[in-house]
Each structure stands twice: as structure tokens, then as C-alpha cells.
């Protein structure tokens, strides 16, 4: 779990809320949500568990399709939405990155290892996403992942040196996937509260904040 420090507020008791975030490192929607999600983490004192998930397995159970197998109309609408959100958020984005989709294995192992060591998985996942969607780099390359980790103030070689064996990291990935399916998750990103309520997609962050504020009105900074 990653607890991101919040601004010090003297004499204010701020409740902590656990939240699970099921992600794909290749997902543009996961990437587009990170900066706003970090704002929620700070405002509502969220205790975040980042859950890299094998969405190919999730799709097989829930009826989802990988991008190349979707109807042309759905692919066209996806591109329209990417352009809209790029413009709405003012974030540069490579609409058709040359290495998409990249092999996530090395990135997922690094992310899981970092979170097991109590490091900031939100920032690391965001910077890995930036490598794909802003910098148009392949996250299958160790040097790209190391640079992303450096941007997140994480020493990738040190993290990997202290990490469990790869098979153990992959087992966490598998467990996340099984948990996602059991929880009813079907797409990335999915933000899941302790009640089991799912908020699918970065375009549901406003609704997530609405729910958090409803729960803990005093927790908002």
C-alpha cells in the first residue's frame, strides 16, 4: 500500500480511506487520470493500493475486447475521446504511440516491487504512463523504466535489487487479476472503495470525489 503524505494540518483529525486502483500500464485512460487522482489522495487522505492487473484475462471473463478486435466505430470513438481529453486536460499525448501496446512485464514487476517497499506507486505508475503517452517510449525497455522511476524519485536498480524473485512479483500480478475479477472490475482504471463500489475510468473521478466528500465532509482540505 502507498500512503502519499498530505499537507500538514495542525489540530485537524483527518480520517483515512482505503482505495484499490486496478490499472494497466498501457492504458491511456489510466495515465490521463493520475494527476487528478493525486489531488484526491491529498485532499481525502487516501491510503492507495495500486493493483497492476492482466486485463487480457479480465476481458476474457467480462466480455471486453483488446483494441485491435474492437469494431471500427468503437476505435474511432476512442480516438475522438483521446483528443477531447487531451484538449480538456491540457496534457500532451501521443495519440498513436509507436510502441503501443508494449510488454508490461518489466514495468509491472518494478511497480509491484516499489509498492512492496512502501514507495510511491502512484507517482511511479504515472511516470511509466508518461513514457508511453507523452514521450512515445517503449516501457518494455529497462532504460525507459529506470528514467521513469527517476522522475518519480525512485531508484529502480535499488528497488529491483531488494525485490523478491520475479516469480513472486508475477504471483502478485496474478492475485491482483483474480481479485479484480472477483470484485467485478472489467476495465482500467478502476477505483474501488472498501464498500465494493467501483468507479471505472478517469472520467469518473468527479463521482469518486463526490462519494468521498459524502463520506467525510471534514476531510477535504
Give keywords.
51% helix; 9 helices; 221 residues; disordered N terminus; alpha+beta; 5-stranded mixed sheet
Oligomer description: single chain
Q: Gyration radius, to the nearest Å?
A: 17 Å
Order of helices and strands: EEHEHHHHHHHEEH
Strand content: 5-15%
Report mean pLDDT, rounded to a whole number. 92
Enumerate the strands of the largest sheet in spatial order, edge to edge or round the barrel: 1-3-2-4-5
Topology (SSEs and partners):
Elements lengths: L1 E2 L13 E7 L4 H17 L1 E7 L2 H8 L9 H18 L15 H12 L4 H13 L8 H10 L4 H6 L4 H18 L6 E3 L5 E3 L4 H11 L6
Parallel strand pairs: 2-3
Antiparallel strand pairs: 1-3, 2-4, 4-5
Helix pairs in contact: 1-5, 1-9, 2-8, 4-5, 4-8, 5-6
Q: Can you tell me about this structure?
A:
This protein has 9 helices and 5 strands; from the N terminus they run E-E-H-E-H-H-H-H-H-H-H-E-E-H. It has helices at 28-44, 55-62, 72-89, 105-116, 121-133, 142-151, 156-161, 166-183, 205-215; strands at 2-3, 17-23, 46-52, 190-192, 198-200. Helix 1 links the parallel strand 2 (17-23) and strand 3. Helix 1 (28-44) runs antiparallel to helix 5.
At a glance:
This protein has helices at residues 28-44, 55-62, 72-89, 105-116, 121-133, 142-151, 156-161, 166-183, 205-215; strands at 2-3, 17-23, 46-52, 190-192, 198-200.
